[in-house]
Amino acid sequence: MKKNKMKEKILLGDMVFGLGLDSPDPMMVEYAALARLDFVRFDCEQGPYTLESIEHAVRSAEAADIVPTARVSGVESGFVVQLLNRGVSGLTFAHTRTARDAAAAVRSVKFAPEGDRTLTSPSGHGMHARWALGLDAQDAFAFANSETLVVCTIEDPTGLANIGDIAAVPGVDVITFGPNDIAATMGYTGDTMHPEVRKAVRDGIKRATAAGAAVGISVGSRGAEWAADYVEAGARVLQFLPAPLMIDAVARTRADLGV
């Protein structure tokens, strides 16, 4: 496990950029590093990831000096400790609705006394814990607690209503928003550009920022206009989505070429 440069930049108030990956491709991790992004996020909530593929992708991230993170469906997924042991430096928890959800997320990521992450050995150097490679046994657990990143995603009206309480939970580093699920739960399924959805997300960003949280958003093919609006509202962590961006870029290039 390395020093978490993504977390360091967040704490400094800097803009942070990353790439959300739907599939476990180490080459895409390297492309993200070549693009001078700060992090990659492996979608373990909906993507076709295995622990073995995660470990290879993490190795690629470490070699390319880019921070490896992952998204999980929640603390109850049973995947949290296994991902952390593979060397993932940050976790995004989907569908965070309450401060209790956020506190459970933090506890699952941190070793005692800050949490209840389980140990593989007294030194952290057990056979299932490659995260501890290169770390002194006496400092490994404290280092992991200081460098792991916890991200909570707001995806419904309950989460939106509880943003202040969620942001106040110690150990929550970033709050992000899931416009697709927010739109669906507001009755606008598939319409993330609906004015009411955009208003809800923008208001959420402003309230999370006012509560002292760093805020993240994802940017896809139709994202430039509303992303700029959300950045103006206070978003500082931008995750690019390669599939929609590629589809949009190909369409625009073909249009420019007239073919």
Q: Biggest sheet, strands in spatial order?
A: 1-2-3-4-5-6-7-8
What fraction of the residues are assigned to beta strands by DSSP? Answer: 15-25%
Mean pLDDT over all positions: 91
- DSSP, total strands: 8
Gross morphology: globular
Largest sheet: 8 strands, parallel, barrel
Please identify the oligomeric state.
single chain
Helical content band: 40-55%
The helix-and-strand class reads alpha/beta
| Low-confidence region ranges | none
SSE ordering: HEHEHEHEHHEHHEHHEHEH
Gyration radius (Cα, Å) is 18 Å
Number of helical regions: 12
Span of the ends, CA to CA: 48 Å
Family: Belongs to the HpcH/HpaI aldolase family.
Protein name: HpcH/HpaI aldolase/citrate lyase domain-containing protein
Pfam family, one: HpcH_HpaI
Domain HpcH/HpaI aldolase/citrate lyase: 21-215
Key terms for this structure?
259 residues; alpha/beta; globular; Aldolase/citrate-lyase_domain; HpcH-HpaI_aldolase
Secondary-structure blueprint of this entry?
Elements lengths: L4 H8 L3 E6 L4 H9 L4 E5 L7 H14 L2 E6 L7 H7 L3 E4 L5 H11 L30 H8 L1 E6 L2 H5 L1 H5 L6 E4 L1 H7 L9 H16 L3 E6 L3 H11 L3 E4 L1 H16 L2
Parallel strand pairs: 1-2, 1-8, 2-3, 3-4, 4-5, 5-6, 6-7, 7-8
Helix pairs in contact: 2-3, 10-11
Describe what you observe in this structure.
This protein starts with a helix and ends with a helix. It is of the alpha/beta class and 259 residues long. The chain has an eight-stranded parallel β-barrel, surrounded by seven helices. The radius of gyration is 18 Å and the shape is globular. Helix 2 packs parallel to helix 3 and helix 10 (195-210) runs parallel beside helix 11. Helices cover 45% and strands 16% of the residues. Helix 4 (80-86) links the parallel strand 3 (67-72) and strand 4.
